[in-house]
Design goal:
The protein has two domains: about 120 residues, 3-Layer(aba) Sandwich (Rossmann fold); about 35 residues, no CATH class. The chain is built from ten helices and five strands. The strands form two sheets. It has a three-stranded parallel beta sheet with strand order 1-4-5. Strands 2-3 form a two-stranded parallel ribbon. α7 links the parallel β4 and β5. It starts with a strand and ends with a helix.
Amino acid sequence: MIVSNTTPISNLLHLDQFRLVASLCREVHVPEPVRDEVDQAFARNREWREALDGGRVQVHKVTNDVLIQQLRRTLHRGEAETVALGVELGAKLCLMDDRDARAVAEGFGIRLTGTLGLLLKAKQLGLLSSVRVLVGRLRDRHHFWISPRMYQEFVRLAGEQ
């Protein structure tokens, strides 16, 4: 079972690559605030609407209010509810980019990947021929931050030096 925060979903939608979610994961589970955040920017996006309507994105109300309140001390609402949902559902993997939120999720024993991990996996499986251009577009147009060293490592792992 896979849970996701807003950023990886939004990044894939910005790149017109949300189809990768269906190719890499049968379905993704999100808390209501994540759905709401994505809807703010992508309510009319066909890929997003089809994923919601077709059940590839499953929306949940997180029930552990005590855990949410504890997590909200250090995380934004969507991040806190994503981690709490991962705990509630016993998620095997969480899609999340924020470093602080990832550290909290790891503390609960949840494995992580993010936008870069999804793109790299898609490249390795032959679903994408190149990822360097996509990451460049995220950086240039959508304020995606990646350190120069991490970018070089990503390009190397993708075989696109």
